[in-house]
Amino acid sequence: MLSLTIPRVALRAAAPQRQFAAAGLRFASTKTLTEAVAEVIPQKQEQLKKLKADFADRSLGEVKVSNLLGGMRGLKVMLWEGSVLDAETGITFHGKTIPDCEKVLPTAKDVGQPGKEMLPESMLWLLLTGNVPSAEEAKQLSAELASKGKLPAYLEKIIDSFPKSLHPMTQFASAVGALNHDSAFAAAYTKGIKKAEYWKPTLEDSIDLIAKLPAIAARIYYNVFGRGDGSQAIDQSKDLIGNYAEMIGYGGNEGLTDYLRLYIAIHGDHEGGNVSAHTAHLVGSALSDPYLSYSAALLGLAGPLHGLANQEVLGWALGMQDKVGKNPTDDQVKEYLWSTLKSGRVVPGYGHAVLRRPDPRFSALSRFCDTRPELKESALVQLVQQVSNIAPIVLKEHGKTANPFPNVDAASGCVLYEYGMSEFKYYTVIFGISRAIGALPQLVMDRALGLPIERPKSMSMNALEALLKK
């Protein structure tokens, strides 16, 4: 039976106020994230009420047999507030493109940290509220996350009990699920809480989990690969990723630290239909707490068709480099691309289930590479950039790829490798830190809007055939 007996005091939205006031971190002109969410929710509730009243019977298109047999791809059957993915324009977060976010979201520099990239904390605020936080609000949120980032002793023991041979993602998902022991939502639900208040302990759990994910990931990194500080020490003055970089032994590497900020911010949300995001929503629709819901999401992210793609790209790119050398000609790259295609394989990192244009996330990572001297001098990174110019031409000529352009995986793993993080199996754990800042805000909104349990209708092939013969 799940442990639901831990008493929780901070079920009221005012709890973070007391924390910040005590720590001297509260800015007089700012709101806490909980207060900001509380302001938004009535507007969202009213918007949903009006949609139901005015358009409940409006058709969004027909369901075809190809949809049923093809993984429901493209069906408009899920409410997801944080982001929208358009085949032509790419991802937007509450209407803001990635370039927009890079311009307006508070950066490391804005909160007094070394670095120039936008903070995942800023993206989290945007995804939860639809609004851009001030630098003071982002700094305040960083402080709240740091104050909640330390792992409880029981979880450290659980993680340390895992064999080193157990895949890092299995360890990660298991550790996240174990935090259910301390769930504010589970405790409140057991005691009896009004449905209208479900979102408050859900938000509390979500912030707590996001705060602890870096330390969980760092402890696994240390146990499996022997790298990092070994203690997951948290500096209360650092931002979320500044602390994470220290924990995994890269605190002195400003380039990697800033890259991780950008990587985690732009990977956080990518609409709701992808496996990890959808799984968090699906499991959460049964009123499972955020720890259980996100643990399930991580197990989906671990699949080779979802979160492992950047590893496949990196392996392929290193194989190409071994074959063509560190400064290949365009013809050599083109020949290697054709050899991959003629062997019956796909070119990893190219194409996308939805996008029909270059992935804006790839463009953001490419821009980052162009600003860092150490990456501009990297033969591997430059090869990735070279391939991104040549591969679309080859793939168009090949004619079997709906989207011949690079997606985010074409660059993400190669940069981690260049900065010295060569442990391929760990890359998806970093992705798992990121995806929480998109999946968990939607879980809060699911509770705030009172969305029902998800229960689509399924059919057997015999039942389908019978229906089609009518």
UniProtKB/TrEMBL annotation:
Look up the record and give one Gene Ontology term from the biological process aspect: carbohydrate metabolic process
Q: Where in the cell is it found?
A: Mitochondrion
Chief location category: mitochondrion
Keyword Transferase in annotation = yes
The organism's superkingdom is given as: Eukaryota
Q: Which GO terms describe its cellular component?
A: mitochondrial matrix
GO molecular function term, any single one: acyltransferase activity, acyl groups converted into alkyl on transfer
Provide this UniProt record's keywords sorted from A to Z: Mitochondrion, Transferase, Transit peptide
State the family it belongs to. Answer: Belongs to the citrate synthase family.
Tell me which NCBIfam families the record gives: PRK09569.1 (NF007128)
Query: Protein name, please?
Result: Citrate synthase
Q: What is the source species?
A: Tilletiopsis washingtonensis
